[in-house]
Every structure is written in structure tokens, then in C-alpha cells.
């Protein structure tokens, strides 16, 4: 089993501001930047096309 990390952790992406840039881009465009978010959005789009649901 993996050892759990306690206390604070360091993220170089967060320190450089990459995380906030990705969040701002996703909010403005409506396109998610995470793998899971893209999968959810595409899956929802396909289901809406198949079942012709209107929002």
C-alpha cells in the first residue's frame, strides 16, 4: 500500500500559475481542461445528440 503524505505538499504547476491559467481558460470558454472534464462534456454531448434533449 502507498504511504500517505502528511502536512503540506508543493506543486510546481501551482507555484508557476499554470493551474490558475487553466481554470480561467476553462471558465471563459466552457471547455474543461482536465481529462475527466473533457470526457464528461463529450459524453453528455453525445447523449444529447442521441436522445435529442434540448437545454
What features would you describe in this structure?
The chain contains three helices and no strands. With 55 residues, the chain is mainly alpha-helical. The protein has one domain (13-51). The radius of gyration is 17 Å and the shape is elongated. The protein starts with 11 loop residues before the first helix and ends with a helix.
Task: Output the keywords.
55 residues; mainly alpha; 3 helices
What would you call the structural class?
A: mainly alpha
- Helix percentage: 55-70%
| Unreliable sequence segments | none
Shape: elongated
Largest sheet: none
List SSEs in N-to-C order: HHH
Number of helices: 3
Distance linking N and C termini: 45 Å
Average pLDDT for all residues: 85
Q: Give the beta-strand count.
A: 0
* Binned strand content: under 5%
> How many domains?
1
Radius of gyration: 17 Å
Topology readout:
Layout: H1 12-16, H2 18-29, H3 35-51
Provide a brief overview of the structure.
This protein has 3 helices and no strands. It has helices spanning 12-16, 18-29, 35-51.
